Amino acid sequence: MSAKTQHNNILLAVLGFTIVVFIVGLIGFFTLGKDDEVQEGQIDVSEYRVSSKLPGRIVELRVKEGDYVHVGDTLAILEVPEMDAQKKVAEATGAATKAMQDLTDAGSRKEAVDAAAQLVAQQKAAEEIARKTYQRMQNLYNEGVTTGQKRDEALAAYKATQAQVQAAESQLAIAREGARTQEKQIAAHNTQAAESAVGVIKGLLKETVQIAQVEGEVSEIYPKVGELVGMGSPIMSISMMDDMWGTFNIREDKLHGLRNGDTFTAFVPAFNKDLKMKVYSIKDEGSYAVWKATKTTGQYDLKTFEVKARPINKWDGLRPGMSLIIKK
After folding, report:
1. Among candidates 109, 110, 123, which has minimal Cα distance to 170?
2. Pairing, β 209-211 against β 234-251
3. What is the pLDDT of residues 245-266, one digit of tens each?
4. Residue 316: which of 264, 283, 268 has the closest Cα?
5. Does the structure show a pLDDT above 70 at 205?
6. Residue 220 in 3-state DSSP?
7. According to a count of CB atoms within 10 Å of the terminal CB, is the N or C end of the chain lower?
8. How far apart are CA 251 and CA 200, in angstroms?
9. Are 218 and 147 spatial neighbours (Cβ–Cβ below 8 Å)?
10. Cβ-based neighbour number of residue 28 at 10 Å
11. Highest mean pLDDT, choosing among 81-90, 191-200, 227-236, 263-272
């Protein structure tokens, strides 16, 4: 091969390498160097958590995940035997105090005194039962078989019966001595207090039947039938499908002057359509959020802001978790 041919081959190789570098540079400029400023978010929804004021056992679930419920629908039924027992005690106490009020108003007759004495005997018998129940619960608690709450409930019932014995004995003394005006007022107040106690327990027992307070879709049910739930523990969550919005985490240099009340168009991949949205909240994510450090280049730190926007028009089929894309 002549020297001239070798020289030409070298020139062709250099020229080819130069062309390849040029092409690669163009590709990098039009792809890597191009910033489409794509912002991605998702659909969120308000959730209502159903919970009970009382600890109890789930005996029935009237709905399942995915069901749409309306205000007033029955969701779940709980069983709280202790409250049923306390209701009976309160009702019995209310009846007893009402009877004593009637006796006090009627005056001190032999029948009234005898009835008051019988009531004292009944209350003492109830006190003895409550005392034994509390003692058994205390022993079980000491052995680690039952909870402190059960022990405390038995103690409260025992103390209540003690108070009822004292009240009955006071009423017996009144019946024997003859009621005065002030004593009649006391009897009336005792009756009113007993009726209020019954009302409170009945109000609490309403918590055993959980009723829907909002309209929406049952998104998750936590306990199974037969499981115990604690006081205030969530039983299920209801997604309020009429209260949806989109959430975007946008770096501050990408906000471009976005303000509350501004509208924009977001692309919904699930429907392959655009959605008109209106901004209603812009909040700093705080120092814990993702931020871009640029101080090493002599500039500044860029924080991230949470931007929330609601769809301008109702869109059937839109669900929590669906992606939203903003392109500028």
Report:
1. 123
2. unpaired
3. 999 998 888 888 889 999 999 9
4. 268
5. no
6. strand
7. N
8. 53
9. no
10. 11
11. 263-272
**Strand blocks (E) in 143-215:** 209-211
Please state whether the predicted TM-score (pTM) of the whole model is above 0.85. Answer: no
Q: Which long-range contacts (CB under 8 A, 24 or more apart) does 124-127 make?
A: 124/165, 126/89, 126/161, 126/164, 127/158, 127/161, 127/162, 127/164, 127/165
d(C-alpha 285, C-alpha 255), whole Å: 14
Q: Which residue has the tokens 């309306």?
A: 70
Beta strands (DSSP E) in the chain are 39-51, 56-61, 68-69, 74-79, 209-211, 216-221, 228-229, 234-251, 263-268, 273-284, 304-311, 323-326
CA-nearest of 65, 49, 10, 18 to 232 is: 49
- Collect contacts of 311-318 with beta carbons under 8 A, ≥24 apart: 311/244, 311/245, 311/246, 311/275, 311/276, 311/277, 312/263, 312/276, 312/277, 312/278, 313/276, 315/275, 317/271, 318/43, 318/244, 318/268, 318/275
